[in-house]
Amino acid sequence: MSESARIWANLILILAAVFAFSALLSWIERRLLGVWQDRYGPNRVGPFGILQIVADSIKLLTKEDWVPPFADKAVFVLAPTIVAVTALLAFAVVPIAPDIGVVDLNIGLLFFLAMSSLGVYSVVLGGWASNNKYSLLGGFRAAAQMLSYEVFMGLALMGVVMLAGSFNLRDIVAAQENLWFCVPQILGLATFTVAGIAEARRLPFDLPESENELVAGFHTEYSSMKFGLFFIGEYVGITLISAMIVTLFFGGWLGPLLPPLVWFLLKTFIVIACFVLLRAALPRPRYDQLMAYGWKVMLPLTLVNLLITGAVVLSAA
Amino acid sequence: MPNVRGASDVLEELKDRFGAPSTGNPGGPMGLVQKTGDGLPTQWVSRNRVRDVLRYLKLEAERPYRMLYDLTAIDERTRAYRDDQPASQFTVIYHLLSFERNADIRLKVALVEPDLAMPTITDIWPAANWYEREIWDMFGIVFDGHPHLRRILLPPWWQGHALRKDHPARATEMEPFHLSEGKEEAEQETLRFHPEEWGMRRVHDGTDFMFLNLGPNHPAVHGVFRIVLQLDGEEIIDAVPEIGFHHRGAEKMGERQSWHTYIPYTDRVDYLGGVMNNLPYVLAVEKLAGIEVPDRVKVMRVMMAEFFRVASHLVFYGTFAQDLGALSPVFFMFTDRERVFDVVEAICGGRMHPSWYRIGGVAQDLPQGWDRLVRDFLDYMPSRLDEYDKIALGNRILKARTRGVGSYSADEAIEWGVTGPNLRACGFEWDFRKTRPYSGYDQFEFDIPTGQHGDCYDRCAVRAEEIRQSLRIIEQCLENMPAGAHKADHPLTTPPLRKQTLHDIETLIDHFLGVSWGPVIPPGEAFVGIEATKGNNGYYLVSDGNTMAYRVRIRTPSFPHLQMIPLISRGLMISDLIAILGSIDFVMADVDR
């Protein structure tokens, strides 16, 4: 097999797998929530309800695709595509297994951070372009939340970069051959996880959406497949953050006995399940409490982590 | 009866202060003292002096009447039995409550057409605001000096005043309904919010305020409640609640249904309260009819009412947590509520609205095996409650969201007519089950949980503890259920016990009349208030010696609770408002009736 054929096969298969997994994730989430909430969840369409997502997709595709007359049309249409595109692009750098992955960038980590930051625009623009007060409030909240949590998201990973000595995600995985970074970088793991949930806008950080307060927040006015894109964006986002947590802190594909791909999928699934569990377990903080938590707790923690890691790396050298 | 004890005292006080009662009402300051079926001191007062009397009772009297408990009116124009009352076409009724005396007083003011105007008392009691609007809406009585005298329950374009006797009660009595496009647009236009009408500014100090229309369809308003927010960013500057979307004319229906067939309507007033709603109604009817029910009936009523308190509080608990973003608790609590309904279903036949109480008793005796079902539930529930304390009340995020949010003091609560758990959350121990025991509550051992801060957290904590106390009461009912009949042996018991129906003609006639026409309740007036799920729910019934009530006034707790939302939400954020709405525990059917 030629080199370009291998790249293309990789690309198409990963894209298909990410889409399929994200779609499946909505079923997994609903079933897991069902288990934790003493109820069934979707169990009627297909075996164990697994085809529910097919039914949902057909429904979403056939719904009226409505653009409100008062909306800023161009931006309104653009916004949902941004979130899906950036999340998928970021997946390009994720090293799934030694020879599986789209690109091997030497600044892979920075590319991931850049893409996830761009994803915020989707929410802010969507909230703004809808020209609806609830959407606007959702957009505001998203902007404020992202601003606070972006700051330490990147910083939280610098400890990992120092230890691995590289921005290349494959090098980072390789550097965890002896010890996963979740041990020396426990603070980095904690802060990155929090930032990651905020980035994916999941409970308890779903303030831009917060259906009890803002109806549906930034995507109140969205319907049909435009809403579907936000939906896909969110699930790809969760998968992406989970894959990144696995890559950066839990040794990526590394593990005994089982093939690397299986290890990677298994670890990612466990992290995703933790995300779902969080959603089942926690209420939602208030917007100012969230900001205070970000700036007053998480940011100092990240800086402390950086200082300690720096000192350890220097003394070891 | 504590009321009777305090009765003569206050009337003496008023006589000393304002002069002896005279028959020439409305000329003199003080009019007749009316005898009522409930023994509540009822004083007729002239329109010119009513403000002075109210101010005296609230501010100057020793052991004052601090709460405006209810404010309503009666269209007297077709009432036959008014022997001991002055001439009046419309009567405005002030019902005050004194905590210090544990007594009430009722003041009545007579009005004669065409001069249907009253001075407002919104400066004495801010809580009078909505009540006076309701009277204007329903009876067309003008309150001079009221800040926003406009319709409250009916839409602004409504013609006529619905509780007047000449207003049709049914659609069949009216012209065929037709909604043209123009009318539809005009009606929708009346929903547009104009800040200027409420004395709000759109711009201040260079800040453009945003006016956010929250509801009537919004996930957090628990039904159809609309509240318009004046926002600076996410901060609430002011709020205007709007109600009436759930109005079904429950009071008007009372004038068309027989005393017996009205019972199912009461179930739906607080639709989470089930038979708890029947209780004040049947107690008031029994007071008018002079029926004394057997002990078994009392205990059965208490037991089912407490089951519904548990069910209602569980819904509150779950939805409150859900309003704060916690997804799971509501599922657990609704599952438990199903268990409550399983017991209710086995005993009453219905689930949410069993309409199980009857005038003079309950519908059926307890079924065989009821004790096992109740015991199973009592064994099951306490450990679940402990778990909920951990997953909901104990959660740190929930505490951060609710502690110190939406708090009010006990004085403010009394000023605004707040009752029930919302009042007890301020640390004020007041529960009708203890202070004015009805239906044999004085025979039970239970505690009155109170909070300290009157904030959202305490309102939830008080209710969580009340569930435990209700379980205690249910357990005592289970262990001490008296033997005996499930209905009183009284001709007005509806339908009466049938054991002698086929033996003597008297009971057969009673049964026939009660079932075909409905019982004829002797003329009179009676009020009974009880400690319902959400606060004090009371029925003020006026009988004109007919098969139907002449006037049914339903005093619901949620009505004043909603009125004070702007007061406690100013300066907070939208998220806090959602917490407040959840913590108040209202259902719109209870507000709008």
Automatic annotation (TrEMBL), chain A:
The keyword Transmembrane helix applies. The gene is nuoH. It is found in: Cell membrane; Membrane. NDH-1 shuttles electrons from NADH, via FMN and iron-sulfur (Fe-S) centers, to quinones in the respiratory chain. The immediate electron acceptor for the enzyme in this species is believed to be ubiquinone. Couples the redox reaction to proton translocation (for every two electrons transferred, four hydrogen ions are translocated across the cytoplasmic membrane), and thus conserves the redox energy in a proton gradient. This subunit may bind ubiquinone. GO terms for cellular component: plasma membrane. It is an enzyme of class 7 (translocase). Its EC number is 7.1.1.-. The chain crosses the membrane at residues 7-28, 74-97, 109-129, 149-167, 179-198, 227-254, 261-281, 293-314. This is NADH-quinone oxidoreductase subunit H. One of its GO terms (biological process) is aerobic respiration. Belongs to the complex I subunit 1 family. It catalyses: a quinone + NADH + 5 H(+)(in) = a quinol + NAD(+) + 4 H(+)(out). HAMAP family: NDH1_NuoH. It comes from the Bacteria. It holds the Pfam family NADHdh. It is a multi-pass membrane protein. The keyword Kinase does not apply.
Automatic annotation (TrEMBL), chain B:
It is found in: Cell inner membrane; Cell membrane. It catalyses: a quinone + NADH + 5 H(+)(in) = a quinol + NAD(+) + 4 H(+)(out). Pfam families: Complex1_30kDa, Complex1_49kDa. One of its GO terms (biological process) is respiratory electron transport chain. Residues 1-184 are annotated as: NADH dehydrogenase I subunit C. GO terms for cellular component: NADH dehydrogenase complex; plasma membrane. Residues 17-38 are annotated as: Disordered. Residues 323-593 form the NADH-quinone oxidoreductase subunit D domain. Residues 44-172 form the NADH:ubiquinone oxidoreductase 30kDa subunit domain. The keyword Plastid does not apply. InterPro entries: NADH_DH_suC, NADH_DH_suCD, NADH_Q_OxRdtase_suD, NADH_quin_OxRdtase_su_C/D-like, NADH_UbQ_OxRdtase_30kDa_su, NADH_UbQ_OxRdtase_49kDa_CS, NADH_UbQ_OxRdtase_CS, NDH1_su_D/H. It is a peripheral membrane protein. GO terms for molecular function: NAD binding; NADH dehydrogenase (quinone) (non-electrogenic) activity; NADH dehydrogenase (ubiquinone) activity; quinone binding. Its EC number is 7.1.1.-. Residues 208-593 are annotated as: NADH dehydrogenase I subunit D. Keywords: Cell inner membrane, Cell membrane, Membrane, Multifunctional enzyme, NAD, Quinone, Translocase, Transport, Ubiquinone. In the C-terminal section; belongs to the complex I 49 kDa subunit family. In the N-terminal section; belongs to the complex I 30 kDa subunit family. NDH-1 is composed of 13 different subunits. Subunits NuoB, CD, E, F, and G constitute the peripheral sector of the complex. NDH-1 shuttles electrons from NADH, via FMN and iron-sulfur (Fe-S) centers, to quinones in the respiratory chain. The immediate electron acceptor for the enzyme in this species is believed to be ubiquinone. Couples the redox reaction to proton translocation (for every two electrons transferred, four hydrogen ions are translocated across the cytoplasmic membrane), and thus conserves the redox energy in a proton gradient. This is NADH-quinone oxidoreductase subunit C/D. It comes from Nitrosovibrio tenuis. The gene is nuoC.
